[in-house]
Amino acid sequence: MAHVPVQGAQVVGRVAALLRIVSRKPEGAALVEVVRESGLTRPTVHRLLTSLAAEGLLDHDGTTGNWVLGTEALLMGSVAAARFPVEDIARPSLRRLAEETGESAFFSVRRGGETVCLLREEGPFPIRSFVLHEGVRFPLGVASAGNAIMAFLPKEEQEQILARWDDHAGTFAPTHPVALVRDNLARTHHDGYSVNPGLVLEGSWGMGAAVFDAQDRPAWALSLTGIETRFRKDRQNFLGRFLLEEAHQITGRLHSRMT
Predict the structure, then answer these.
(1) What pLDDT, on the 0 to 100 scale, is given for residue 7?
(2) Per-residue pLDDT tens for 92-114?
(3) What is residue 122's predicted lDDT score, i.e. its pLDDT?
(4) Closest by CA position to 26, among listed 134, 106, 109, 179
(5) Sorting pLDDT into bands at 50, 70 and 90, what band is 1?
């Protein structure tokens, strides 16, 4: 039996990819968008989406025509949330960051070659950046959270990603040339926190700090985003120290839960 290939493994991979695409935005995704991002044919995508809807994992929004997550996905997420209580662990730090800095604060997790935003807390400053919200994914090394995490990965792992950077970064590659990414990673490792000078969206800046798991690997990140004038050099030291303090506290809380 050990030599018999797993039946349906390709289908499972395709289904997982479609779920990730749909879950990137609260409003879901149109069929044409799912087809483009998945690289699958339109009939295949439609058949899989329809099957997922029949199981309750997806819904088809009759108003927008988008495919969105269904109630079964909500139930599964609730069970997963009980196992990984990031809300209890990270929310206090997010609130302090948002209230004290005025900016939007986020908690993201590494998932393979991506970072996924899990939590968001709004600060009182009236002008905000909406580049990031719950469910948004970025390639590792892109945006402040992904840069903060990648900077503290083992050098060999960094080089594996950088060696295929254009494919890895996808549509972000033109604004994130590999030489610039290398410089940003080195600076982040030296300072302890990352700075994204409007590379994802012009005028929208961000800063991030890695949160480490029980094996001292960067697995999550805290970040702040806002308009460029709020992230000038004279304020970066304050924001960076604040991020590092809160990231250290979350790391400690996570370690105590895991031991």
Answers:
(1) 55
(2) 999 999 999 999 999 999 988 99
(3) 92
(4) 134
(5) very low
Contact 67, 34 (CB under 8 A): yes
What integer is the mean pLDDT of 68-84? 77
Task: Confirm if 4 and 38 have CB atoms less than 8 A apart.
Answer: no
Instruction: Count the Cβ atoms, other than its own, within 10 Å of residue 148.
Output: 34
Q: Is 154 helix (H, G, I), strand (E, B) or coil?
A: coil
Helix residue ranges, H only, 42-177: 42-54, 71-83, 86-101, 143-150, 155-163, 165-169
| Domain edges within the chain | 9-76, 84-258
Q: What class is the 9-76 domain?
A: mainly alpha
- Who's near 177: CB < 8 A, 6+ residues apart? none
Number of residues written out for the chain: 259
Query: What is the CATH topology of the domain spanning 84-258?
Result: Beta-Lactamase (3.30.450)
**CA within 13 Å, CB half, 56:** 6
Taking a C-beta distance cutoff of 8 angstroms, is the pair 224, 189 a contact? no
> Is the pLDDT confidence value at 72 over 80?
yes
> Which position has the higher pLDDT, 4 or 46?
46
User: Maximum CA pair distance of the chain?
Assistant: 64
